[in-house]
Specification:
- By secondary structure, the protein is an all-beta fold.
- It contains no helices and 9 strands.
- The model has no long low-confidence stretch (mean pLDDT 94).
């Protein structure tokens, strides 16, 4: 999927609905989107939200501090982010 930089470490691409693509550095962190565990990164997930609702993204991996990030919903957009974990 071809994306374009959108600021705040995000990239976006046109999409039908709203979705997030999440990578982690290092790879393999367990990712949750909107409180639902989606699996180990990389993760691609549709998100049901409206307007400028906020969606919470969490990433956790043993030996690293968990990271929480909040994204704003956007109509017909795929948002790609990379979450950097620190020890």
């Amino acid at each position: 999927i071809k994306t374009q930089p959108a600021g705040h470490g995000e990239e976006t691409s046109p999409f039908n609905g709203f979705a997030v693509s999440i990578d982690t550095d290092p790879p393999g962190a367990v990712v949750s989107v909107g409180g639902v565990v989606r699996g180990e990164a990389p993760v691609l997930s549709n998100v049901g939200c409206r307007g400028s609702d906020k969606v919470e993204i969490r990433a956790a991996k043993e030996g690293f501090r968990p990271v929480r990030r909040e994204l704003s919903c956007r109509p017909d957009t795929l948002v790609k982010v990379t979450i950097h974990l620190e020890r």
